[in-house]
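Predict structure. Chain length: 134.
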Amino acid sequence: MRVVGCFLEYKDRFVLLRRHSHKPDGNTWGLPAGKVERDESDVDAIIRELFEETGYQANVTELSLLGVYDFATPQGTTNNFVTYKLQLKTPHSIILEDSAHSEYKWTTAEEGYAMPDLIFGLHDLFKMTGYIKD
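Prediction complete.
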């Protein structure tokens, strides 16, 4: 499965979204992210996901590709996680996708990394992308 995600940042903080309890990986925090749909490019998918999950209408020129990371899930499948960064120039009020998320928070990398209830693989992603140094 191919998944896209984005560190949506403003002034050294980025947004984390809490998944509803009834959703897969419920009650965990993660980046704005989602599956790449059939016949959709990675860039088109992250632009769509950012808008659906945060209300932010991104432009392709704002996105920086951080990398593609492979994760073996607890269910035994492998996901390709295409990771982007988008540095906002002005604040953005998050508009949650009510069907998927219950709340959001702006956090530093250190604060986010210290959270015990992150979605599977996000602790590792912080390190792989350089947000957290060993």
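Summary: Residues 42-54 form the longest helix (13 residues).
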